[in-house]
């Protein structure tokens, strides 16, 4: 929790302003439909006028059997923010719109057009009229603020794209309040100490539609230096990212599947780390079928992780010993905590982050 921290726009980095596309949300959420029936869903990093998360849940409110949909916006966002003119149920006023933090609390979505389905026009209407009309928040809508925490207490499942720069705090808060969640984050966030603690506590794993290229809406002024990673459609700027993963503690079918192992261990192919007693497995597909001890594997292992087949012991950031205890200075590249393997001639190679695992049901 933020405690006495100033909850202001300065708490968020410019790179936090990524808005997820509806197609990506639909692709992931289709796997969890039965787990939302009768639940209160909280999207606490979303502006309903801009957020595809809100659009998805509002359009599928009845289909999913939701009990309630709560959405809060953040006043510091350069894209999102309530247009106060839209709060006038009698019609749009003439004064310029003002960005501010607000809440939308949905308990009912009606087919206003009587066309047999809920579509965007119905969603737009519920934002203007009736019991779902947005109301201003007292603060700026930061997920750590007292009023947003009070709403979090009422929620069953949190679904959103949280600020990447605050991912540690966000995960810690969800764990503190014991909430179910489905959120987006950078793949490398799995190596954070706070996140790895939840993995080891069996309270966090990867969702389904991970990796690949995802296009996110960004502010017009967002600087994208690589041409291939940007596009403008109908005047809206998008930025592509290739390592965005879904993090969740909702049940997934693949988490119960046993990963088939086919390779056999040899000390030549699986060297032991210089600074930790485990072997290096450079590819998840190469986990040996007959090895009984600790193994370091790439973080993408979590895509295959079945807690009935493997035990997670930690990560290279948490378990690696100082190289100064094992090798002379100058024989290895210095950096943060990582595993090293011998390259011969007295030199050692620094590896990417690793998760340390051990097979379950094998005699130690």
What does this structure look like?
- The protein is α+β, with helices and mostly antiparallel strands.
- It folds into two domains: 9-253, 3-Layer(aba) Sandwich (Rossmann fold), CATH 3.40.50; 257-359, no CATH class.
- Helices cover 16% and strands 21% of the residues.
- It is built from eight helices and 17 strands.
- The strands form four sheets. Strands 4-3-2-1-5-6-11-7 form an eight-stranded mixed sheet, with helices on both faces. It has a four-stranded mixed sheet with strand order 12-13-17-14. The chain has a three-stranded antiparallel sheet with strand order 8-10-9, with no helix packed on it.
- Residues 1-12 and 80-98 have low confidence and may be disordered.
């Amino acid at each position: 929790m933020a405690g006495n921290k100033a909850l202001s726009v300065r708490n968020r980095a410019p790179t936090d302003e990524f808005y997820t596309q509806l197609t990506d949300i639909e692709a992931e959420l289709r796997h969890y439909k039965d787990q939302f029936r009768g639940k209160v869903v909280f999207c606490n990093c979303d502006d309903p006028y801009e957020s595809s998360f809100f659009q998805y849940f509002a359009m599928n409110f009845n289909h999913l059997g939701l009990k309630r949909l709560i959405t809060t916006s953040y006043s510091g966002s350069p894209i999102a923010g309530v247009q106060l003119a839209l709060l006038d149920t009698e019609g749009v006023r003439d004064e310029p719109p003002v960005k501010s933090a607000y809440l939308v609390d949905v308990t009912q979505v009606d087919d206003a057009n009587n066309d047999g389905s809920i579509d965007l026009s119905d969603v737009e209407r519920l934002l203007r009229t009736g019991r779902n009309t947005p109301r201003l928040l007292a603060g700026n809508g930061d997920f750590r603020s007292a009023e947003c925490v009070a709403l979090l207490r009422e929620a069953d499942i949190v679904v959103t794209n949280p600020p990447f720069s605050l991912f540690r705090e966000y995960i810690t808060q969800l764990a503190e309040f014991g909430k179910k969640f489905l959120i987006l984050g950078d793949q490398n966030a799995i190596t954070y100490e706070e996140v790895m603690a939840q993995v080891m506590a069996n309270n966090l794993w990867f969702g389904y539609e991970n990796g690949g290229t995802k296009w996110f809406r960004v502010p017009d002024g967002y600087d994208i230096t690589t041409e291939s990673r940007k596009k403008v459609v109908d005047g809206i700027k998008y930025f592509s990212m290739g390592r965005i993963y879904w993090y969740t503690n909702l049940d997934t079918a693949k988490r119960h599947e046993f990963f088939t192992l086919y390779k056999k261990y040899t000390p030549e192919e699986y060297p032991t780390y210089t600074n930790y007693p485990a072997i290096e497995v450079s590819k998840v597909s190469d986990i040996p079928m007959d090895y009984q001890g600790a193994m370091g594997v790439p973080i993408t292992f979590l895509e295959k992780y079945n807690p009935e087949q493997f035990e997670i012991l930690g990560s290279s950031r948490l378990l690696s010993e100082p190289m100064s205890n094992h090798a002379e200075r100058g024989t290895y590249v210095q950096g943060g905590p990582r595993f090293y393997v011998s390259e011969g001639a007295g030199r050692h190679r620094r590896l990417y982050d690793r998760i340390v695992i051990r097979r379950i049901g094998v005699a130690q």
